[in-house]
Amino acid sequence: MNALTITRHLTTATAALASQNLSPDAIARAVWTTIGEPGDTQAGALINAVGAADALTLLCQGDGNAAGLDLTNLRGRVLPRVADSGIVTAVHAAEKVDAVLITSEHPHWPTGFADLGSSAPHALWARGNTALLVAPKSIAVVGARAATGYGEHVCMDIVGGLVGRGHTIVSGAAYGIDGMAHRAALASDGQTVAFLAGGVDRFYPTGHDALLTRIVTDGVVASEMPCGSAPTKWRFLMRNRLIAAGSNATLVVEAGWRSGSLNVAGHAKALGRPLGAVPGPVTSPTSAGCHRLIKEYGARIITDTADAAEL
């Protein structure tokens, strides 16, 4: 492996993304999205130290250390992907669905991502109204996939009220509370953002194809993964940090004791974002996670739109 491989990929990416008039750093970040995994702090630290383009070059050099960092493990993870980089396929797939690349140079880059430090995404691929990624009033609304009628009803009421107050609703497009949050926002003629764990050209879950298609039209769908990428368990967990960092506050409407939405809440708390949870019946296992957030995470009790807006 040598710098010629990287040069070839950068040249290919530059030609493929020419219509977007991107800087060399942004082009390099597009390549990084195809060869790395979300939340890789070693890659993030290297990019922060020398820039995305130089980081790619240093990656291909044989020295064990570069920029004061030990790159042995990073090279082992990333170099095999560089050799088989899918940058051409990813960029062409993005062109087919009108996905745009957004980096920290772009006016629609969420400033909250800076709080993620070296685990911040290299870039976002997005479809729709990308200005919503920097909406001044945004709140993440997440919860159980196996939502109850109670949870969906509360979610619909609170989201409808938040939209009426000018809030943009951020979520992950999963079944249950996530899907209801998006639907309630759209039904109220509001704005919504969906962060995916896979490429924005491969809607997941497939049962939300129609919902995500509408979000592309009336909102925005974004991912740090390139087009063509499939979601994985790790990517779902890492996607959750984008939901938390890309919004001003997080509300968990309904969640089981081990619900994935608690992972979003954990990121929100770690980032110092306001966190709220809707209480439910003490006999309901789908509200056990919310009660846990209130008792162990210091989440505020949210019972209506006014409570949520105060977050």
UniProtKB/TrEMBL annotation:
InterPro entries listed in its UniProt record: DprA, DrpA_SLOG
Family according to the record: Belongs to the DprA/Smf family.
Cross-referenced Pfam families: DNA_processg_A
Any single GO BP term: DNA-mediated transformation
Organism: Cryobacterium roopkundense
Domain Smf/DprA SLOG: 101-309
NCBIfam families registered for this protein in UniProt: dprA
Name of the protein this chain belongs to: DNA processing protein
